[in-house]
Description:
Blueprint: H1 2-24, E1 29-33, E2 36-40, H2 42-81
Antiparallel strand pairs: 1-2
Amino acid sequence: xxxxxxxxxxxxxxxxxxxxxxxxxxxxxxxxxxxxxxxxxxxxxxxxxxxxxxxxxxxxxxxxxxxxxxxxxxxxxxxxxxxxxxxxxxxxxx
Length: 94
């Protein structure tokens, strides 16, 4: 219980400090490429970068699972073929 109260207190203090920084100095980011210009505050730019990072990680995770799943399903019939009939469970008319 004491640890939870301490964690809440730390979260409130950090939130207050970050909020003060956001209001006092919002920062400025300007990205220009060819005829395109993107202007935003530092905090929005940081949120966009974190969001882009999470999106790339999520896509790579899904792609990796799809590739591994395909490899596992392709090897499953070969593994079943190698088993002997005595190792297979006996099923018969009930």
